[in-house]
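sry for the spam today, last one i promise. C-alpha coordinates for design, 319 residues
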Protein backbone atom coordinates (compact mmCIF):
# COMPACT_ATOMS: atom_id res chain seq x y z
CA UNK A 1 0.00 0.00 0.00
CA UNK A 2 1.45 3.40 -0.96
CA UNK A 3 2.01 6.13 1.59
CA UNK A 4 -0.66 8.28 -0.13
CA UNK A 5 -3.23 5.48 0.11
CA UNK A 6 -2.36 4.85 3.74
CA UNK A 7 -2.90 8.53 4.54
CA UNK A 8 -6.21 8.54 2.67
CA UNK A 9 -7.45 5.49 4.57
CA UNK A 10 -6.34 7.05 7.85
CA UNK A 11 -8.17 10.27 7.00
CA UNK A 12 -11.41 8.42 6.25
CA UNK A 13 -11.07 6.47 9.50
CA UNK A 14 -10.50 9.67 11.45
CA UNK A 15 -13.57 11.30 9.93
CA UNK A 16 -15.68 8.26 10.73
CA UNK A 17 -14.53 8.29 14.33
CA UNK A 18 -15.03 12.03 14.82
CA UNK A 19 -18.45 12.99 16.24
CA UNK A 20 -20.56 15.36 14.17
CA UNK A 21 -19.99 18.99 15.00
CA UNK A 22 -22.66 20.61 17.17
CA UNK A 23 -25.02 22.93 15.37
CA UNK A 24 -23.55 26.44 15.30
CA UNK A 25 -26.31 28.93 16.19
CA UNK A 26 -26.19 32.71 16.00
CA UNK A 27 -26.34 34.90 19.09
CA UNK A 28 -29.65 34.60 20.95
CA UNK A 29 -30.28 31.11 19.64
CA UNK A 30 -29.33 27.63 20.84
CA UNK A 31 -29.30 24.13 19.42
CA UNK A 32 -32.29 22.02 20.43
CA UNK A 33 -32.60 18.30 19.74
CA UNK A 34 -36.06 16.95 18.90
CA UNK A 35 -37.80 14.31 16.81
CA UNK A 36 -36.95 16.16 13.60
CA UNK A 37 -33.24 16.41 14.42
CA UNK A 38 -31.42 19.46 15.75
CA UNK A 39 -32.61 23.03 15.23
CA UNK A 40 -31.44 26.47 16.28
CA UNK A 41 -34.26 28.00 18.34
CA UNK A 42 -34.53 31.28 20.29
CA UNK A 43 -33.13 31.10 23.79
CA UNK A 44 -36.21 32.96 25.00
CA UNK A 45 -38.97 32.69 22.36
CA UNK A 46 -41.56 35.47 22.45
CA UNK A 47 -44.15 34.35 19.89
CA UNK A 48 -44.90 30.65 19.97
CA UNK A 49 -47.33 28.72 17.79
CA UNK A 50 -48.50 25.25 18.82
CA UNK A 51 -50.18 23.09 16.21
CA UNK A 52 -51.85 20.81 18.77
CA UNK A 53 -54.20 22.16 21.43
CA UNK A 54 -54.43 19.58 24.20
CA UNK A 55 -50.89 18.21 24.34
CA UNK A 56 -48.88 21.32 23.37
CA UNK A 57 -50.79 24.61 23.65
CA UNK A 58 -52.50 23.71 26.92
CA UNK A 59 -49.34 22.79 28.89
CA UNK A 60 -47.65 25.92 27.48
CA UNK A 61 -50.45 28.10 28.83
CA UNK A 62 -50.14 26.30 32.16
CA UNK A 63 -46.53 27.47 32.59
CA UNK A 64 -47.10 30.95 31.20
CA UNK A 65 -45.39 30.57 27.82
CA UNK A 66 -45.89 33.41 25.30
CA UNK A 67 -48.30 31.50 23.07
CA UNK A 68 -49.77 33.51 20.18
CA UNK A 69 -51.41 30.79 18.09
CA UNK A 70 -52.71 27.25 18.36
CA UNK A 71 -54.79 24.66 16.60
CA UNK A 72 -58.40 24.92 17.79
CA UNK A 73 -61.08 22.24 17.68
CA UNK A 74 -64.73 22.50 16.68
CA UNK A 75 -67.58 20.51 18.18
CA UNK A 76 -71.33 21.09 18.18
CA UNK A 77 -70.84 24.41 16.41
CA UNK A 78 -68.34 25.75 18.95
CA UNK A 79 -64.65 26.51 18.47
CA UNK A 80 -62.45 25.82 21.50
CA UNK A 81 -58.89 25.10 22.54
CA UNK A 82 -59.04 21.46 23.50
CA UNK A 83 -57.85 20.86 27.02
CA UNK A 84 -57.33 24.49 28.00
CA UNK A 85 -60.96 25.53 27.51
CA UNK A 86 -62.06 22.94 30.07
CA UNK A 87 -59.08 22.99 32.44
CA UNK A 88 -58.72 26.78 32.68
CA UNK A 89 -62.06 27.95 31.28
CA UNK A 90 -63.11 29.77 28.12
CA UNK A 91 -62.54 33.19 29.71
CA UNK A 92 -58.92 32.33 30.49
CA UNK A 93 -58.29 31.21 26.92
CA UNK A 94 -59.91 34.36 25.53
CA UNK A 95 -57.85 36.56 27.84
CA UNK A 96 -54.63 34.81 26.76
CA UNK A 97 -55.09 36.22 23.27
CA UNK A 98 -54.20 32.93 21.57
CA UNK A 99 -55.32 33.02 17.94
CA UNK A 100 -56.60 30.00 16.00
CA UNK A 101 -54.40 28.68 13.18
CA UNK A 102 -57.03 26.34 11.82
CA UNK A 103 -57.96 22.89 13.02
CA UNK A 104 -55.39 21.21 15.27
CA UNK A 105 -55.30 18.27 12.87
CA UNK A 106 -54.68 20.49 9.84
CA UNK A 107 -53.01 23.83 10.59
CA UNK A 108 -53.30 26.72 8.11
CA UNK A 109 -49.82 27.82 6.99
CA UNK A 110 -50.98 31.31 6.04
CA UNK A 111 -52.58 31.79 9.47
CA UNK A 112 -49.34 30.66 11.13
CA UNK A 113 -47.21 33.02 9.02
CA UNK A 114 -49.52 35.96 9.76
CA UNK A 115 -48.76 35.61 13.48
CA UNK A 116 -45.01 36.04 12.83
CA UNK A 117 -43.94 33.33 15.29
CA UNK A 118 -40.36 32.85 16.40
CA UNK A 119 -40.96 29.20 17.36
CA UNK A 120 -43.39 26.57 16.06
CA UNK A 121 -44.06 23.31 17.90
CA UNK A 122 -45.59 20.27 16.19
CA UNK A 123 -46.72 16.87 17.54
CA UNK A 124 -44.83 13.79 16.36
CA UNK A 125 -47.46 12.73 13.86
CA UNK A 126 -47.12 16.07 12.03
CA UNK A 127 -43.40 15.61 11.40
CA UNK A 128 -44.04 15.80 7.66
CA UNK A 129 -45.22 19.42 8.07
CA UNK A 130 -41.96 20.56 9.62
CA UNK A 131 -40.32 21.40 6.28
CA UNK A 132 -43.15 23.82 5.49
CA UNK A 133 -43.32 25.39 8.94
CA UNK A 134 -39.52 25.73 9.10
CA UNK A 135 -39.81 28.18 6.21
CA UNK A 136 -41.88 30.38 8.54
CA UNK A 137 -39.97 29.99 11.83
CA UNK A 138 -37.71 27.54 13.67
CA UNK A 139 -39.71 24.39 14.21
CA UNK A 140 -39.40 21.56 16.69
CA UNK A 141 -41.33 18.29 16.74
CA UNK A 142 -42.12 16.68 20.08
CA UNK A 143 -40.88 13.14 20.57
CA UNK A 144 -43.71 10.64 20.49
CA UNK A 145 -45.12 8.88 23.57
CA UNK A 146 -42.88 10.58 26.11
CA UNK A 147 -43.67 9.85 29.77
CA UNK A 148 -45.99 12.53 31.14
CA UNK A 149 -43.44 14.58 33.09
CA UNK A 150 -40.81 14.23 30.35
CA UNK A 151 -43.35 15.65 27.90
CA UNK A 152 -43.90 18.71 30.11
CA UNK A 153 -40.16 19.08 30.72
CA UNK A 154 -39.36 19.07 26.99
CA UNK A 155 -41.91 21.82 26.33
CA UNK A 156 -40.58 23.90 29.22
CA UNK A 157 -37.01 23.47 27.98
CA UNK A 158 -37.91 24.46 24.41
CA UNK A 159 -39.65 27.62 25.59
CA UNK A 160 -36.98 28.73 28.07
CA UNK A 161 -39.18 28.01 31.08
CA UNK A 162 -37.40 25.12 32.76
CA UNK A 163 -37.24 27.14 35.99
CA UNK A 164 -41.04 27.42 36.05
CA UNK A 165 -41.32 23.69 35.39
CA UNK A 166 -39.00 22.92 38.30
CA UNK A 167 -41.03 25.13 40.66
CA UNK A 168 -44.35 23.58 39.63
CA UNK A 169 -42.91 20.07 39.88
CA UNK A 170 -41.63 20.75 43.39
CA UNK A 171 -45.07 21.98 44.44
CA UNK A 172 -46.76 18.92 42.95
CA UNK A 173 -44.32 16.53 44.63
CA UNK A 174 -44.93 18.21 47.98
CA UNK A 175 -48.66 17.64 47.47
CA UNK A 176 -48.06 13.96 46.69
CA UNK A 177 -46.00 13.57 49.89
CA UNK A 178 -48.83 15.11 51.94
CA UNK A 179 -51.35 12.76 50.34
CA UNK A 180 -49.17 9.71 51.00
CA UNK A 181 -48.86 10.72 54.65
CA UNK A 182 -52.63 11.09 54.94
CA UNK A 183 -53.30 7.69 53.35
CA UNK A 184 -50.65 5.76 55.25
CA UNK A 185 -50.09 2.90 52.80
CA UNK A 186 -51.54 3.79 49.38
CA UNK A 187 -50.41 0.44 47.95
CA UNK A 188 -53.12 -1.23 50.06
CA UNK A 189 -55.73 0.46 47.83
CA UNK A 190 -56.32 -0.76 44.27
CA UNK A 191 -57.40 2.01 41.89
CA UNK A 192 -58.64 0.83 38.50
CA UNK A 193 -59.38 2.88 35.40
CA UNK A 194 -61.71 1.35 32.84
CA UNK A 195 -63.81 2.55 29.94
CA UNK A 196 -66.08 0.70 27.54
CA UNK A 197 -67.37 1.23 24.03
CA UNK A 198 -69.05 -0.91 21.41
CA UNK A 199 -65.80 -2.72 20.59
CA UNK A 200 -65.10 -3.71 24.18
CA UNK A 201 -62.96 -2.32 26.98
CA UNK A 202 -60.25 0.16 26.08
CA UNK A 203 -57.28 1.09 28.21
CA UNK A 204 -54.39 3.52 27.66
CA UNK A 205 -51.35 3.04 29.91
CA UNK A 206 -49.54 6.25 30.89
CA UNK A 207 -52.69 8.20 30.08
CA UNK A 208 -52.15 11.80 31.04
CA UNK A 209 -52.28 13.36 34.49
CA UNK A 210 -54.59 10.84 36.18
CA UNK A 211 -52.30 7.92 35.41
CA UNK A 212 -49.25 9.88 36.58
CA UNK A 213 -50.99 10.64 39.87
CA UNK A 214 -51.99 7.00 40.46
CA UNK A 215 -48.35 6.04 39.97
CA UNK A 216 -46.90 8.86 42.08
CA UNK A 217 -49.22 8.35 45.05
CA UNK A 218 -48.39 4.65 44.94
CA UNK A 219 -51.82 3.07 44.57
CA UNK A 220 -51.94 -0.54 43.41
CA UNK A 221 -53.47 -1.39 40.03
CA UNK A 222 -55.05 -4.54 38.63
CA UNK A 223 -52.37 -6.71 37.01
CA UNK A 224 -54.00 -6.34 33.58
CA UNK A 225 -53.27 -2.60 33.79
CA UNK A 226 -49.84 -2.64 35.41
CA UNK A 227 -48.61 -5.05 32.73
CA UNK A 228 -50.02 -3.10 29.75
CA UNK A 229 -47.47 -1.39 27.50
CA UNK A 230 -49.66 0.15 24.82
CA UNK A 231 -53.30 0.91 24.11
CA UNK A 232 -55.38 -2.21 24.33
CA UNK A 233 -58.84 -3.03 23.00
CA UNK A 234 -60.01 -5.77 25.33
CA UNK A 235 -62.91 -8.20 25.26
CA UNK A 236 -65.81 -7.57 27.65
CA UNK A 237 -65.07 -11.00 29.16
CA UNK A 238 -61.93 -9.49 30.69
CA UNK A 239 -63.95 -6.98 32.72
CA UNK A 240 -63.64 -8.86 36.07
CA UNK A 241 -59.86 -8.37 35.86
CA UNK A 242 -60.42 -4.60 36.01
CA UNK A 243 -62.07 -4.77 39.44
CA UNK A 244 -60.59 -2.80 42.33
CA UNK A 245 -61.32 -0.91 45.54
CA UNK A 246 -61.91 2.30 43.59
CA UNK A 247 -63.08 2.24 39.98
CA UNK A 248 -62.93 5.37 37.81
CA UNK A 249 -64.25 5.94 34.30
CA UNK A 250 -64.14 8.96 32.01
CA UNK A 251 -66.63 11.04 30.09
CA UNK A 252 -66.16 14.10 27.87
CA UNK A 253 -68.96 16.70 28.10
CA UNK A 254 -67.21 18.68 25.37
CA UNK A 255 -68.18 15.92 22.91
CA UNK A 256 -71.75 15.56 24.15
CA UNK A 257 -70.96 12.59 26.41
CA UNK A 258 -72.95 12.22 29.62
CA UNK A 259 -72.85 9.74 32.48
CA UNK A 260 -76.48 8.58 31.91
CA UNK A 261 -75.61 7.91 28.26
CA UNK A 262 -72.70 5.66 29.20
CA UNK A 263 -74.63 3.87 31.95
CA UNK A 264 -77.39 3.01 29.50
CA UNK A 265 -74.87 1.96 26.83
CA UNK A 266 -72.92 -0.22 29.24
CA UNK A 267 -76.10 -1.89 30.51
CA UNK A 268 -76.76 -2.94 26.93
CA UNK A 269 -73.21 -3.92 25.98
CA UNK A 270 -72.06 -5.67 29.15
CA UNK A 271 -74.66 -5.52 31.94
CA UNK A 272 -72.39 -7.58 34.20
CA UNK A 273 -70.25 -4.47 34.76
CA UNK A 274 -72.58 -3.86 37.69
CA UNK A 275 -71.36 -7.11 39.28
CA UNK A 276 -67.85 -5.77 39.87
CA UNK A 277 -67.16 -5.65 43.60
CA UNK A 278 -66.14 -2.02 43.39
CA UNK A 279 -69.43 -1.11 41.69
CA UNK A 280 -71.53 -3.11 44.15
CA UNK A 281 -69.74 -1.37 47.03
CA UNK A 282 -70.64 2.02 45.57
CA UNK A 283 -67.03 2.85 44.71
CA UNK A 284 -67.35 3.53 40.99
CA UNK A 285 -66.83 7.20 40.04
CA UNK A 286 -66.69 9.31 36.89
CA UNK A 287 -64.13 11.97 36.02
CA UNK A 288 -64.14 14.62 33.30
CA UNK A 289 -61.66 13.31 30.76
CA UNK A 290 -60.10 16.49 29.40
CA UNK A 291 -59.54 17.81 32.95
CA UNK A 292 -58.07 14.74 34.68
CA UNK A 293 -56.14 13.54 31.63
CA UNK A 294 -54.89 17.01 30.68
CA UNK A 295 -51.18 17.68 30.15
CA UNK A 296 -50.88 20.32 32.86
CA UNK A 297 -49.76 20.69 36.45
CA UNK A 298 -53.27 21.90 37.22
CA UNK A 299 -54.61 18.55 35.98
CA UNK A 300 -52.10 16.71 38.19
CA UNK A 301 -53.27 18.71 41.20
CA UNK A 302 -56.96 18.24 40.37
CA UNK A 303 -56.62 14.48 39.92
CA UNK A 304 -54.55 14.17 43.10
CA UNK A 305 -57.14 16.07 45.16
CA UNK A 306 -59.92 13.99 43.64
CA UNK A 307 -58.29 10.64 44.35
CA UNK A 308 -57.52 11.69 47.93
CA UNK A 309 -61.18 12.58 48.41
CA UNK A 310 -62.25 9.15 47.10
CA UNK A 311 -59.83 7.14 49.24
CA UNK A 312 -58.99 8.94 52.48
CA UNK A 313 -60.28 7.22 55.61
CA UNK A 314 -62.28 4.61 53.69
CA UNK A 315 -59.78 1.75 53.47
CA UNK A 316 -57.18 0.18 55.79
CA UNK A 317 -54.49 2.48 54.35
CA UNK A 318 -56.37 5.47 55.73
CA UNK A 319 -56.74 4.16 59.28
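last one done:
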Amino acid sequence: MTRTLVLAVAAVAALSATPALALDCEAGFRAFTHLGGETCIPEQPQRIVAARGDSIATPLLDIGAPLVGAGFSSEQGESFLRGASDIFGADFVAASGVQPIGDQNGPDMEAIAALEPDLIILPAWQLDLSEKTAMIAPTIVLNDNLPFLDHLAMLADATGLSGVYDQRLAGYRAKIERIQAQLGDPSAITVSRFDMAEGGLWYYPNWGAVDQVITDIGFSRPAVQSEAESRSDISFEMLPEFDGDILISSYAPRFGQTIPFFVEQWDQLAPFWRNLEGVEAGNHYWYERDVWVGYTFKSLETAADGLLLLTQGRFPAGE
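The longest helix spans residues 162-183. ok im logging off now
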